[in-house]
Design brief:
heterodimer, A: about 140 residues, 4-stranded mixed sheet, B: alpha+beta, globular
């Protein structure tokens, strides 16, 4: 099954063609939690790899690799979105189904920007942080 | 979700993670995820739903 509809794929190719720096998708696979009923017999790790490899095919600047239970990943499968291969603390835990695939595409586009896209006042506020902050956003695929 | 990712890319202090609630039901239950997006800062549930960037920044920084 295709990852994206034809018109979506064209748009994503255009976005990825404009990336200003390379973006690596590090797919982490390992023991998986039992999901809610209804997930069927999905191999989430294999499906995550299919999704990320599919996205990497849409832009020369996007690459994908897989690691088994790497350090720093509390849940599997997960994908770390890495500008220039550097871990910047941005991760997607679980499979980005449906609408959430757009979040992963958006993360790749953001990672590929040479400059942050936040407002100057937001950047200034973040610049004043004097300790680490863990921001988790729970999502569903609908 | 993108705002959280933007914060993560913009600051080395911020780790931003999207978590698919259906795949990690135990954690979702611990974080009392009844609606999405559910925003959690440093392991403490904060609010549900999308908010504009200035309000997002205000909320996460005041929770920190």
């Amino acid at each position: 099954m295709a990852l994206l509809r034809a018109e979506e794929e064209t748009r994503v190719r255009e976005w990825f063609a404009e990336l200003e720096r390379p973006v690596e998708l590090l797919v982490a696979v390992g023991p998986e939690e039992t999901p809610l009923p209804g997930a069927g017999d999905v191999d989430f790790g294999a499906e995550m790899m299919r999704v990320c490899e599919g996205l990497a095919e849409l832009g020369e600047a996007v690459t994908c690799r897989r690691e088994e239970e790497p350090d720093g990943f509390p849940r599997f499968p997960a994908v770390s979105i890495r500008p220039e291969g550097r871990d910047s603390g941005v991760r997607y835990d679980g499979l980005p189904w449906g609408y959430e695939l757009g979040s992963l595409v958006g993360a790749i586009v953001e990672a590929g920007r040479a400059e942050p896209s936040l407002r100057p006042e937001s950047l200034a506020a973040l610049g004043e942080l004097d300790r680490d902050l863990a921001l988790d956003v729970f999502v569903t695929p609908t | 979700m993108l705002l959280a990712f933007r914060c993560g890319f913009a600051s080395e202090r911020v780790a931003a993670t999207a978590i698919e609630a259906n795949e990690f039901p135990q954690l979702a239950q611990e974080m009392q995820v009844w609606a999405v997006p559910r925003i959690v800062v440093d392991g403490v549930p904060q609010w549900d739903g999308a908010v504009p960037e200035p309000e997002f920044l205000r909320r996460i920084l005041s929770a920190a």
